[in-house]
Structure prediction request, 209 residues.
Amino acid sequence: MNEPSNEMLPTRWSLLSRLKDWEDQDSWKQFFDAYWKLIYSTALKSGLTHAEAQEVVQETVISVAKNMGEFKASPASGSFKAWLLNLTRWRITDQLRKRPPPDRFQAPRSEDTARTATIERVADTNPADLESEWNHEYERNLVGIATQRVKGRVKPEMFQIFDLLVNKGWPALKVSRRLHVSLAQVYYARYKLTSLMKREVRNLEKTGL
Prediction:
């Protein structure tokens, strides 16, 4: 699937307003690119299979399209993140209801047993567990979007240094030798991109989405 656009929007409230137009394909693509991983990851962590999680993504996006008119795209109206979580939770529940009842005469596979236990914990005992998982995945999603935006604004060599040093955990000396750059360049790349990443995440958080 395509990565989020590198374009830096002044706010995402304007994007939500445009989503009320079903014919605005560019805005819908931007929305999908920004949020499908969040929805998909949360569905998987809820115990769903890959196919079920994909179905949740599709059905959640359809639900957003159908119910967008009910959401007022303004910071004063509340968090879009919470509204999207509710839609996602309902679609996860729909997938659970579609499952056939277990055959009590057939021993479950270990993988299925683990999935069922996870599902029961999320769906039946404590809805706050799903919200906690959603918030965790939401933060990861923000970092992912910020990473793609920053990557599009710096030189490939600088991003490669940052990726090896920070994301892959290589020692600075190893990065320096592998890429044939000085240690000063390695440390500068880490400082520069870390600053850009923090700023980009703050910009995303300010939208209230």
